[in-house]
Specification:
With 356 residues, the protein is an alpha/beta fold. The protein contains 12 helices and 14 strands. A 7-stranded parallel β-sheet has the order 8-9-7-6-12-13-14, sandwiched between helices. The protein has a 5-stranded parallel β-sheet with strand order 2-1-3-4-5, with helices on both faces. A two-stranded antiparallel ribbon has the order 10-11.
Length: 356
């Protein structure tokens, strides 16, 4: 494999120096330049276009979000945001993710040099994952990097021998799982749903500090109501519940109604929340009353759970390869035989309304 060429854009000389040193120590990565702001970065883009850009947000002359939007409109290149984040800045970071960033690394305000040195593996994984991503014009963000932890399946949170649900209920539920590229994919999907749409539960792989802000942003854009899920929230028509980025979310049957359970637990398929956990709970609690949708994402989280939904009588959909940023999760679901229909992203909303 050829070396991955990386351009660093950050106004801090210390960050540029430490990032350069740490990335050079990782095999298969070569730093081709380090610019203090986007204006200087453009010179590197003309001279030796990188495979991946590591980008700060707050910089002089041009902020990182403006540069990112311009870049994605003119010449899309995978971008990893490396920024100091505060509660106030979470919305700004979400704007960057929506504008086309592929991954995000949180820089602390203090102990920055030590953090970057200790996070060499994190940096390397983020750059290598970004280099494999398919970015499109105004294309989206990726999920948090995969930690080096034992790989657990959904059994670690929810046993696989649940009872088959009662088929008779007027309530319908749509379960969606997505990861890399999912922030913009969800925006395109959910903005197409009317307020009469069935209740939707979503797992988007995303750091915990972003899911509430992400839900608020979607709520402003969509006709349906969108919010971060809270324990025992009822799944209602016209409501989309986003799993908190720090907890698993499960669907539960309560009489003829559906509610969500927000539960702590180990990483499943190296994620928390896990799509597999949500889909397994939907298979057990909703069965044929559910529609399962797996969308753009790296890895295979959700593939086994979607097969369980399919086997329980749910109608299952996978986003097609052409419209995915990363055709990983849908591909694995198709390979397992758990997909009833493969659709382009822009056709999924119509199919939800038809099926549910």
């Amino acid at each position: 494999m050829n070396e991955i060429k990386v351009l660093i854009v950050d106004d801090s000389a210390v960050v540029r120096q430490v990032l350069t040193e740490e990335l050079k120590a990782i095999g298969g990565i070569r730093v081709v330049g380090a610019a203090a702001d986007p204006i200087f970065a453009r010179r590197y883009l003309e001279h030796e276009p990188p495979d991946v850009i590591i980008l700060d947000i707050e910089m002089p002359r041009m902020d990182g979000i403006t540069f990112l939007r311009t870049l994605m409109a003119e010449r899309p290149i995978p971008v990893v945001i490396c920024s100091t984040l505060t509660e106030r800045g979470a919305d700004v970071t979400l704007q960057a993710m929506s504008a086309g960033a592929v991954d995000i690394i949180t820089k602390p305000k203090v102990g920055l040099k030590g953090f970057l040195q200790e996070s060499r593996t994190l940096l390397g994984d983020a750059v290598k994952a970004a280099a494999r991503a398919r970015v499109i014009r105004l294309g989206p963000v990726a999920a948090a990097p995969l930690p080096s932890t034992p790989r657990l399946r959904a059994d670690a949170v929810l046993p696989g021998h649940g009872h088959r649900p009662l088929a008779e209920t007027t309530d319908r539920v749509v379960a969606i799982g997505t990861s890399t590229g999912g922030t913009q994919a969800l925006e395109r999907l959910l903005t197409r749903l009317p307020r009469t749409a069935p209740g939707v539960v979503v797992v988007q792989h995303m750091p915990g500090q972003f899911t509430a802000a992400f839900a608020r942003r979607l709520d402003e854009l969509c006709e349906v109501q969108v919010r971060e899920a809270q324990p025992d929230d009822r799944v209602l028509p016209g409501l989309v519940l986003i799993a908190p980025g720090t907890h698993h979310m499960l669907l539960r049957r309560s009489g003829a109604q559906y509610r969500v359970e927000v539960r702590d637990g180990p990483l499943v398929s190296r994620h928390r929340p896990s799509v597999d956990v949500l889909f397994r709970s939907a298979a057990q609690s909703a069965g044929p009353n559910a529609v399962g949708i797996i969308m753009t994402g790296m890895g295979d989280d959700g593939a086994h759970g979607l097969k369980e939904m399919h086997d329980a009588g749910a109608f299952t959909i996978a986003q097609d390869e052409a419209s995915c940023v990363v055709y990983g999760m849908p591909k694995e679901a198709v390979k397992l035989g758990g997909v009833d229909l493969i659709l382009p992203l822009d056709d999924i909303a119509g199919e939800i309304l038809h099926r549910a």
